[in-house]
Amino acid sequence: MHEKEFLYVGHYVDIDGNYILKIGTTNDLKRRAQEHTRNYRKAKTLTMPKTDCFQYDWTLKLSKYNTLRYEDRNRQRWQEMAIGNFVRNDRFNCGQRKPIRVQVTIRKTYTIEL
After folding, report:
1. What are the φ and ψ backbone dihedral angles of 54, each rounded to 5 degrees?
2. Domain spans in the chain, listed from the N-terminal domain onward
3. Does residue 113 surpass a pLDDT of 90?
4. Cα separation, 94 vs 73, whole angstroms
């Protein structure tokens, strides 16, 4: 049996009003959103307000191997496109200007309205 995982795009707005965009993978969307919320509320930089929570903009279920591969490829592409300032791991600080949309390419390209 092949395990399935989700490739996702999500965001939050930090205490300074910066739009923080994230691409990642998980096998449990609810648990992962709770982990992001807990961790980003405690972050030293780009801190999430205590009243906010991490939100998903898009998810797609894929094989576990493919999710990691596509996460890496798309993260790299976003860095090359200067979607925002890349923060360690896989967050992008887009500053005060929220992107209108981003694209994720698997076999086809998905346009995600933010």
Report:
1. -65, 135
2. 4-113
3. yes
4. 19
Q: Contact, 112 vs 78, CB < 8 A? A: no
DSSP structure string for 66-81: HHHHHHHHHHHHHHHT
Beta bridge mates, 85: 93
Strand order in the sheet with 85-87: 55-63, 4-13, 19-26, 91-93, 85-87
Burial of 23 (0-12, 13-18, 19+ CB in 10 A): buried
- The phi and psi torsions of 14 (rounded to 5 degrees) equal -80, 180
Six token digits for residue 29: 């969307």
Q: What is the dihedral of CA 55, 62, 66, 98, to 10 degrees?
A: -20
- Kindly report the number of other CB atoms within 10 A of residue 33's CB atom: 18
Whole-prediction pTM value? 0.92
SS3 86: strand
What's the pLDDT tens digit per position in 7-60?
999 999 999 999 999 999 999 999 999 999 999 999 999 999 999 999 999 999
